[in-house]
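Lab meeting minutes (informal)
Scribe: AK
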Amino acid sequence: MFVLIVGAGRVGSAVARSMLASGHQVSVLDEDPLSHERLDAGLDTTWEEAGGRFTVGHGIEIEALVEAGIEQADVFIASTNGDNTNLLISQIAQKKFQVRSVIARVMDPARADWYQEQGLRTISPTKVAIEMFEQALSEV
């Protein structure tokens, strides 16, 4: 499978390395060229030598998405540090490029729920933390 991840922070780079180690083709798009260092971390070689791809650009730019390979993507993951960016680019991937599987990281649980109801797959670390906290309280 071809996986395109926008955002090479801690989450995006960890997911990218995991997907590459699982044998998938992985392309990462990030506006910060220095974020590439996170992709190399823990590898015996460079990200590219291991088979990964890295593109410098902003995820809301169609040209950058195309250069990173969105037209071939089977999976699209939006993991930037901004909910608005993640939601926007996920909708672009889903609607304009018809990517089969699109996942958006959304910190605001209410927005994550609303977009999930509209058909966009979201994950909210905040919501997961709240649910875990509530479960822990019920066990006390």
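Next up, CB showed the second protein from the same session:
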Amino acid sequence: MTTSFYPPQRTLMGPGPSDVHPRVLAALSRPTIGHLDPEFIRMMDEVKQMLQYAFKTESPLTMPISAPGSAGMEACFVNLVEPGDKVIVCQNGVFGGRMKENVERFGGTAIMVEDDWGKPVDPAKVKAAFAAHSDVKILAFVHAETSTGVLSDAKTLCQIAQHHGALTIVDTVTSLGGSELDVDGWGVDAVYSGTQKCLSCPPGISPISFNQRAIEVIEKRQTKTPSWFLDQKLVMGYWGGGAKRAYHHTAPVNALYAFHESLVMLEEEGLENAWARHRHHHNALRDGLEAMGIGFLVEEPYRLPQLNSVFVPEGIDEAEVRSRLLADYSLEIGAGLGALAGKVWRIGLMGAACNKKNVLLCLSALENTLSAMGADIPTGKAIAAAQAVYNAN
């Protein structure tokens, strides 16, 4: 007979999901009410307002999609791309490739701008792509590439698109709440994210926002949006302002309680303070890893503090290390993807998992495990190097 499932207690320091804060977990267990209940609608309005704060936007079409971050990505493309549209897609990792897939599935033409994995999107290549192709409708790129841990210059890329009269679609799944993001200030037209990274929330919700330029494009579509569920003209009837809402779908009530709580916590900490916290603990982790002789894939100026891709020491089975960390320390770190598989680990410092205790646990567990496996690394230096960062602040 099947019994209830009780998951083990893990420390999640991979590429996501991240540790969920106890306050957010507690919010999940609150009584379920109807998704058209006046109190739930009041909470929805608060979610929208706090999400506008997190994105730094005043756009009214800012809301959580009732599905994971991949659905947020699809919502942006399915509403803005029509058959025959030209879309410049920047790929410097896995998720730029998924953007290309979306463009092509909805009948658009993807004009690829490619950079090496671990490098940021090159603005000069984007300018060249615009110069070579007329009538480009959209520039799409990943702000924080989860597969490599590289941060691209979203402000500059958006300025290039604006100069050519193109919209922008920006993936901020790993940057929202962890790195500087200014949707209105940078002129981002359509943006999507996820709850399971720096917001310390369970996966399953995708925050999105469309500005007025994007809304006008949606309203003037020549073809019907191919997805009923993700059609923003329909969803806005439910997520629009005011107490009167049109039924669209049964919202994930308790998951939205959790998301509300995570946004409350972000407001309490302060957006800039959250960015600074991620940077601070990254600095300690960085110094500890480098003292151990472990190097980073991404150069310092472009490195995401919340997602650290680091090279596996020579002669070490990276999968065996991850297995031992999970078995011996209940600690999860991530593997490399694509061409980086077997070559790097991805160590996350996101949301509630971004703290001193986890940094020191990760360094100690990794040093002990690598030493036991015969890795040629300096020992006894990593913790001291990280502590020096903490003592200096």
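CB comment: The first strand starts at residue 11 and ends at 12.
No objections, moving on.
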